[in-house]
Amino acid sequence: MKDSKPYDAVAEVRKHRKMFGIIHWNNPELFKSKLKAAREKYHERLLEVNSFVAER
């Protein structure tokens, strides 16, 4: 993977799947909420990076 990548959403999802797989097996809604939070975090970081690039 490239070192210049500020945030890796796929790695974040894999981390959550590994950590919470058994917990979410019987509760898919909880898993969906965790994925939604990760997606929002990704979008926030993406906006930060884009605003930083636009300032240059």
Secondary-structure element pattern, one letter each: HH
For the secondary structure, the number of strands is 0
Share in β-strands: under 5%
Please give the radius of gyration in angstroms.
Answer: 14 Å
Backbone structural class: mainly alpha
Helix content: over 70%
Main sheet makeup? none
List unreliable stretches of 5+ residues.
none
Total of DSSP H or I helical runs spanning 4+ residues: 2
How far do the termini sit from each other? Answer: 26 Å
In round numbers, the mean pLDDT is: 78
Shape: elongated
Number of domains: 1
Task: Give an account of the 3D structure.
It is a single chain. The chain is mostly helical. It has one domain (9-55). It contains two helices and no strands. α1 packs antiparallel against α2. It is elongated, with a radius of gyration of 14 Å. The model has no long low-confidence stretch (mean pLDDT 78).
Keywords:
single chain, 56 residues, mainly alpha, 2 helices, 80% helix, elongated
Question: Secondary-structure blueprint of this entry?
Answer:
Elements: H1 9-25, H2 28-55
Helix pairs in contact: 1-2
Write a short abstract of this structure.
The chain has two helices and no strands.
